[in-house]
């Protein structure tokens, strides 16, 4: 696995510009502002591009355990661990509240395909356990055993852009949007059969301009208080004609638990 991980890192250097664009094309516009107590499993993954720049929100993460954050591979691949940290327990992107946690390492799924954003999943191991944990602001979320049926409503949250035409106008306060599950067959018709793999599924904006968007990648899609997927990619934000594509988290619980046992 680590041999493959090394190959991925080499590929990430070659495809630096591609990954940079995918960060923003991996798609909260619309929706409503919430407080972290409503979504205590959400964290902001923050990165500083060099030693002179501040830490900035890059994408979202999902708390799985006291020392493990789930996110997408596209969010973290190729990043310098020394410039990466996690902000937990805060509703706000830039305020000096919540808690910051250093990252010890991250693990990319061995089948991740950088070109097709397939198996878009990564684990982040924190250098120290989350504290206070569990609490009303910092709490893990369970992974569901199966996906809900098509047309069921689910919730997605994040600090991503509030403007579908911008990849930098991030929300200051965490927002939540409702999306509707889309049948696999319809999703494949929209994006092309080979583009949507068995580990992806689609969920569409319930209304125009309410959807996950740039900067929300890695955040959990939640149905009945359990995580069913992670925001991965999409053609546009808030357009009911083009649903968002999610990593099918329900298929990865065994892999996740096996990797955590090696920490």
Automatic annotation (TrEMBL):
This protein's GO CC annotations: extracellular region
One Pfam family matching this protein: Trypsin
Endpoints of the signal sequence: 1-21
Subcellular location: Secreted, Extracellular space
Coiled-coil ranges (or none): none
UniProt family annotation: Belongs to the peptidase S1 family.
Keyword Protease appears in the UniProt entry: yes
Species for this entry: Haematobia irritans
GO MF, one example: serine-type endopeptidase activity
Keywords, comma-separated and alphabetical: Disulfide bond, Hydrolase, Protease, Serine protease, Signal
Protein name as catalogued: Putative trypsin alpha-3-like protein
The organism's taxonomic lineage, starting at the top: Eukaryota, Metazoa, Ecdysozoa, Arthropoda, Hexapoda
């Amino acid at each position: 696995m680590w041999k493959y991980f090394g190959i991925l890192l080499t590929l990430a250097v070659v495809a630096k510009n591609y990954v940079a664009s995918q960060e923003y094309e991996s798609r909260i516009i619309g929706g409503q502002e919430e407080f972290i107590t409503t979504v205590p499993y959400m964290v902001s993954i923050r990165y500083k591009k060099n030693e002179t720049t501040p830490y900035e929100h890059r994408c979202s993460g999902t708390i799985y355990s006291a020392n493990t954050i789930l996110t997408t591979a596209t969010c973290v691949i190729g990043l310098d661990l020394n410039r990466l940290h996690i902000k937990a327990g805060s509703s706000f992107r830039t305020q000096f509240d919540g808690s910051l946690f250093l990252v010890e390492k991250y693990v990319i799924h061995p089948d991740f395909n950088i070109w097709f954003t397939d198996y878009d999943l990564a684990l982040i191991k924190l250098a120290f356990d989350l504290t206070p944990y569990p609490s009303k602001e910092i709490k893990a979320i369970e992974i569901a055993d199966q996906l809900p049926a098509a047309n069921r409503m689910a919730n997605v949250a994040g600090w991503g852009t509030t403007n579908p035409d911008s990849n930098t106008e991030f929300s200051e306060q965490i927002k939540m949007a409702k999306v509707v599950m889309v049948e696999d067959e319809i999703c494949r018709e929209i994006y092309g059969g080979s583009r949507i793999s068995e580990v992806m599924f689609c969920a569409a904006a319930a209304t125009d301009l309410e959807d996950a968007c740039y900067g929300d990648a890695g955040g959990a899609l939640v149905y009945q208080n359990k995580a069913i997927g992670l925001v991965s990619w999409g053609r546009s934000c808030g357009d009911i004609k083009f649903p968002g594509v999610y990593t099918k988290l329900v298929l990865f619980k065994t892999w996740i638990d096996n990797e955590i046992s090696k920490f």
